[in-house]
Structures are given as C-alpha cells and as structure tokens.
Design a protein that fits this description.
mainly beta; 2 helices; Thrombin, subunit H; 41% strand; single chain
C-alpha cells in the first residue's frame, strides 16, 4: 500500500471531528436504484434493485457566487462526503463513487437526487451537487 492509497483515510481521520463539531458525525444515506422506473409526475421510483450505503459528510448551501457562475439552481445543495467513510448496509467499508441519479438522504430525512459529482485529486472527498 503506497502513500497515495493512505491519503483518503488520513483525510477522513483529520476532517471527521471538525466537519460539524456540534453534531458530529453527520451520516448520509446514499441509495442507488438500478433498472427502475421514475415518474416525473409523482417524483417516485418504482421497481428496480436498491443498494444502500452510509457516508459521513457535511450539508451546505451554495453561495450566490457559485450559483451565478454555473448551472446550480437556488435550491441545490452541496454535500461533501468523505470517501473513506462510505460503508454498505452492514457497516463494511466499500469503495463507491456516487453517481448522477443516486439519491442522498440527509440526517434530517430529506432526500435529494445527485445531479453532479466532483472528486478531489486524491479521491479523499466527493463534492456532490444535489437537487430536490
């Protein structure tokens, strides 16, 4: 295992305690639905296979500057997820790249659809653009 392989774990250990000191950790649920049908009218997904993952992260609003420079709409939210914190439903660590179309549920129970995902150069964090 080289140094680059260890960086996501180091970043996870360093950032977990400071992401939200008053209410740590914020655990998000990522749901991936494969081969399902989506109804735009009801905004519901039916059928398909669901895979559920957990990740530690921070829930943020985009700045006015960010919204004015890109295709980010007013109600979009930024979610920063620590890559090394992602686990499957049984709590086992997994390597998962959140994908456009995955669902993210906040600790408060609000569900958003992933619109876009960026990753930092070493793969320690995912910056997710999520929309209701």
């Amino acid at each position: 295992m080289g140094l680059l392989d260890e960086i996501p774990g180091i970043v996870n250990d360093a950032l977990s305690p400071i992401l939200n000191p008053s209410d740590n950790p914020k655990v998000f649920t990522i749901t991936r639905v494969v081969a399902a049908t989506y109804s735009a009218e009801t905004r519901e997904i039916s059928g398909g296979t669901r895979s559920v993952y957990k990740a530690v992260g921070q829930f943020l609003a985009y700045s006015v500057f960010d919204r004015s420079q890109t295709a980010i709409v007013e109600n979009d939210r930024k979610i920063i997820l620590l890559a090394a914190s992602i686990t499957d439903a049984d709590g086992n660590p997994v390597i998962l790249l959140p994908l456009d179309g995955d669902l993210v549920t906040t600790p408060d129970g609000d569900t958003y659809r992933i619109i876009h995902v960026d990753r930092d150069p070493v793969g320690a964090t995912f910056i997710v653009q999520a929309r209701r």
